[in-house]
Amino acid sequence: MRFMTTSDTPENATAGIASQDWAHASADPQYRAAVVDLLGALAYGELAAFERLAEDAKLAPSLEDKAELAKMASAEFHHFERLRDRLTEIGEEPTHAMEPFVAALDGFHKQTAPSDWLEGLVKAYVGDSIASDFYREVAVRLDSDTRALVLAVLDDTGHAGFAVDRVRSAIDADPRVGGRLALWARRLMGEALSQSQRVVADRDALSTMLVGGVADGFDLAEVGKMFSRITEAHTKRMAALGLAA
């Protein structure tokens, strides 16, 4: 099976892969490499999310909030385990698959360390949602087996509703909080998109799959459209938080 030639259209290539299972789709080495990249990035993202939520729990103002974050952290670790096990199942070493994404994700978290409980909630809500949007864009181009796994680990752990409730309550209690958190969310959006674009640009197999495959690697215009859709979804989530985008 071939992955793509320049005479193919992105739509036809995407439909071809999406209609296959892993056993058939993985016969193409470029596609296999892209999926290993994707699962590696997702796995490290879930592991980092587990660590972050466990750390954020220390900032929780109540025992109830602390327990809720611990529950979410547990769900993130379960997602990590599923991805780790899948990498092993297809003959890949999980640590090796995750390694290329450690610097970018760690860099993002280092540059966006929250200073308080509310900033931590907004970061988790905004950052996780942007990442989920990105991976859902990729998921439509995947084989049926990989797509099902990716969508399963992107399931909401409950953090979205929890964050919206707590942030809106804080703004109701002190409207001045809204301005500070809006600025924080804008910074998070910029940092998250910057890191995502670097990952796409640096991983040839993943970027080629993401835009349907083109002769010179990837179509920057198509990537731009994808990030525009992600930005639009972010604006809607900001409104749900009661913040200006």
TrEMBL record:
Q: Show the InterPro entries listed in the entry.
A: Ferritin-like, Ferritin-like_SF, Ferritin_actino
Q: Which SUPFAM superfamilies would you find in this protein's record?
A: Ferritin-like
UniProt cross-references to Gene3D superfamilies, sorted A to Z: 1.20.1260.10
Domain of life where this protein originates: Bacteria
> Which segments of the protein form a coiled coil according to its record?
none
Pfam family of the protein (one):
MiaE_2
Write the protein's name.
Ferritin-like domain-containing protein
| Annotated organism of origin | Streptomyces aurantiogriseus
- Taxonomic placement: Bacteria, Bacillati, Actinomycetota, Actinomycetes, Kitasatosporales
